[in-house]
Design brief:
Length: 329
């Protein structure tokens, strides 16, 4: 499965740019899409975003971003890790919940007699090398800031070819290899038991429940149909359920959006119709008036909603509500 990437991961990329105008044009992303916390990017969009950042700045920009990134930039996943009791448990939580931020890549924590390895075991179909550099740089930064006992990482390996490794060796304070067989961050096994100054067991229990819920709510697929439906659920309330508006929020042109939906054997109008149908039942169950439902679904008038609902169900909204009220509890 191609997977998706949270917009939380592209925000540091945008923040590192002196001017984002050229970035928006090159990537076909939009400020509106990146500002949407619930939005997801395709691996290809994420890859292009990183490539454009490197083109506009420098090959070592990931280290600059790591130095400037404030605590909490990566939301619930980061806070779960910071609340963990030890370095080892923080890494296990990160591996466990990484798919909340990105499920295009799979990472594992593997341990042998002497070392622990944070490894990329499944790479994205559109790799973004800078994202791996930033991720490992942030893990090292957080470990140095939060570990109650100092320790050194043993080695850092990247599959992708890289620039002069000297700045990376200075940052990681460890040997760094580009063009390695596997992308991994290596630390002494003994370091896994190092306590974290930010540990909070009570908060961790609360946060893991929230992270579990975020995992359950994560889209089961990365189809354009799913993304359009998600944006439509909010847009219809403000009468913005038009193809041009939805395409812009997703960082696409209307033509590109229609083409990608066609590749998934559907159309924008069909997706909008399905979202309206689903929401209509929910709003009826919540006891909203017909006029309110018509407005929230973006219909020009209640009669248009009446006709659409009868087309979907074979009965009018009033009949549907009456039947629901008469049904046994």
């Amino acid at each position: 499965m191609p997977g998706t990437v949270s917009t939380l991961l592209v925000r540091p990329v945008v923040a590192a740019l002196a001017s984002a105008d050229a970035f928006w044009r090159a990537t076909d992303l939009t400020p509106e899409l990146v500002a949407d916390t619930d939005a997801r990017l395709t691996p290809a969009q994420f890859c292009v975003a990183w490539a454009e950042l490197v083109r506009q700045t420098s090959p070592t920009v990931a280290l600059k971003i790591a130095a400037a990134t404030p605590p909490g930039a990566f939301g619930i996943v980061e806070y779960v890790c910071r609340s963990a009791p030890t370095i080892g448990e923080a890494l296990r939580q990160w591996v466990r919940y990484l798919n909340v931020l990105e499920d295009a890549v799979e990472v594992a924590l593997e341990i042998d007699a002497d070392h622990a390895y944070v490894r990329v075991v499944r790479e994205s179909e559109a790799p973004a090398p800078g994202a791996h550099e930033l991720c490992f740089a942030l893990v090292v930064k957080q470990a140095r800031e939060l570990a109650t006992v100092p320790f050194r990482f043993a080695r850092v390996d990247f599959v992708h070819p890289g620039p002069d490794p000297a700045p990376y060796r200075a940052w990681f304070d460890a040997p760094v290899t580009f063009g390695a067989p596997i992308t991994q961050l290596v630390l002494p096994r003994a370091a896994l038991t190092t306590s974290l100054a930010s540990s909070d067991p009570n908060l961790l229990a609360i946060l893991t429940r929230a992270a579990d819920e975020a995992q359950r709510q994560r889209p089961a697929d990365a189809t354009m149909t799913t993304q359009v439906a998600r944006v439509l659920r909010e847009a219809l309330r403000s009468d913005d359920g038009h193809v041009d508006v939805i395409a812009k929020r997703l960082g696409l042109t209307a033509r590109s959006l229609q083409r990608r939906l066609k590749d998934e054997a559907t159309t924008f109008n069909a997706v909008r119709e399905d979202v309206r149908r689903q929401l209509s039942h929910r709003y009826l169950d919540e006891g909203l008036s017909i006029a309110e439902i018509s407005f929230l679904l973006g219909f020009s008038e209640p009669s248009a909603f009446f006709r659409a609902f009868k087309r979907w169900t074979g009965v009018t909204p009033v009949e549907a509500r009456r039947r629901a009220a008469a049904a046994p509890a």
